[in-house]
């Protein structure tokens, strides 16, 4: 799960500095990685109890 988050963030950063032609897609990548990160944190919190 963390690997996917890191990959999405790296792709977002590469796209953000390269060009703005696919800006909407880049923001979707960022949003997806943030959602996965939140789900990962919530899932860990539940499993620790």
Quickly list its features.
49 residues, mainly alpha, 2 helices, elongated
Structural class: mainly alpha
Beta-strand content bin? under 5%
- Overall pLDDT metric: 76
Radius of gyration: 13 Å
Sum up the overall morphology in one term: elongated
Helix content range of the residues, please? over 70%
Total helical elements? 2
Uncertain segments are none
- How many strands in all? 0
Distance between the termini: 20 Å
The biggest beta sheet is recorded as: none
- Secondary-structure element series: HH
Describe the 3D structure.
It is built from two helices and no strands. It has helices at residues 2-18, 23-47.
Short précis:
The protein is mainly alpha-helical and 49 residues long. Helices cover 86% and strands 0% of the residues.
List the helices and strands and how they pair.
Blueprint: H1 2-18, H2 23-47
Helix pairs in contact: 1-2
């Amino acid at each position: 799960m963390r690997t996917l988050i890191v990959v999405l963030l790296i792709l977002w950063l590469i796209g953000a500095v390269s060009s703005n032609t696919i800006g909407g897609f880049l923001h979707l990548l960022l949003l997806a990685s943030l959602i996965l990160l939140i789900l990962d944190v919530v899932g860990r919190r539940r499993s620790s109890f």
